[in-house]
Every structure is written in C-alpha cells, then in structure tokens.
Amino acid sequence: MLHDDLDLFDNTDSAVLALAMTAFFGQIRLGELFPDAQDIRKFKGKYNPVLKDLAQPHSAHGSCKLHLPWTKTKKNRGEDIILCKQNGAADPINAMLHHIHKNRLSENSPIASYIAPNGQRMAMTAKRFLKRCNEIWSKRGLTRFTGHSFRIGGTTFFLIKGVNPDVVKALGRWSSDAFKKYWRNLEILGVLHIELLDTTEKKKKVRIAV
C-alpha cells in the first residue's frame, strides 16, 4: 500500500518507503533504525546504522546484510539482520537502492536520512516516519499504526507465507516467549500449517534389494 501511494520522485517519500520495507522485512524495532533528532549534527552512529553498515549483496538477487550498531537486547554489541530480495513492488532491496541514489547517501550517511528541499541532509525520526505512513493509511480508511506494527507485521507476514517458524524466529531475533506472545492471525496460521493433515496410519513397506 505504501509503495502505491508514496511519491518516489520525492526525497522524503523515497526514504520513507526504503525504511518501511527495511523495518518490515528485517523485523526491526524502529528505535534500532531511526535517530532521535532531525538535526544531522546530533546523529550518533553508535546507535543507528549508516550506509557502510549495509553489506555488499551475498546472493545473485541482491539480498544483503545490515548491521545494527545497537539493539534492544544486545545493546552496543549490535546485531545483524538480513534483507532479502522480494518479488513485486514491496521489495526492500529495490526500495533501498532507490533511496541511496535519490538521497545521495555516502558511507557515513545515516540510512534514516534524506535531502530536504533546502538541499540540507536531515535525519528521519520515527515520529516523522510514522506521521507520513499514517497519512497514507488514514486515506485508505485504516486506523493509525504504531512503530511496533512493522516488526510484528513482518513476522506475521513470513509466518502466513509458510516460512519455517524457526527461521522467522532466528532472523527476527526473537526470544521464545516474545515470539509466542506476538504471534498474530492464528486462525490463518493454523489453516496453513495444520489443516487437512494426513491422519491415516500407513504401514511402512520395506524393500529388500536382491
């Protein structure tokens, strides 16, 4: 929905799309991605990623690793997340490449930043990011979303798509208790994973080669 309504000729919207795709498909907490202040002079690279934290692609399709310098659970030890190429318009790789080009990111530029109309680089805060996202969702008749919706939404999306829960849990850096607590759409997940299982007992046939 965001990729349909955002103006990708606009610097701010280009950044919003890339960051939305990154948070969603990377199952990232917004505080791990977004700076606290818009003033680029106040940016602290030890808390939020810059462009050089985005590794070179490790697959033929362009999937890559992003290092988060600080995370809620590992603090300043940081963690790595994987951004995988997706089919269709909702793709974090294409969105990020467009953002990098459109907003002229250098290796030390915050990933959550953009070029303002006055030509100056500004940091993108979570508040500004969510404001723009909710403007679009409100026009579609949706209720307002919070920052946690991206991490939870990404997790639920992967589970609904049939990705192995252990893989989703590992890539999302979930603890066991939190992972179970935040599962959504259990009705859909149940249908996908455990409906119409073969419950008939089958005798094993043993073949002996002679």
UniProtKB/TrEMBL annotation:
<keyword id="KW-0233">DNA recombination</keyword>
<dbReference type="GO" id="GO:0003677">
    <property type="term" value="F:DNA binding"/>
</dbReference>
<dbReference type="InterPro" id="IPR013762">
    <property type="entry name" value="Integrase-like_cat_sf"/>
</dbReference>
<dbReference type="InterPro" id="IPR011010">
    <property type="entry name" value="DNA_brk_join_enz"/>
</dbReference>
<dbReference type="GO" id="GO:0015074">
    <property type="term" value="P:DNA integration"/>
</dbReference>
<dbReference type="GO" id="GO:0006310">
    <property type="term" value="P:DNA recombination"/>
</dbReference>
<dbReference type="InterPro" id="IPR052925">
    <property type="entry name" value="Phage_Integrase-like_Recomb"/>
</dbReference>
<protein>
    <recommendedName>
        <fullName>Tyr recombinase domain-containing protein</fullName>
    </recommendedName>
</protein>
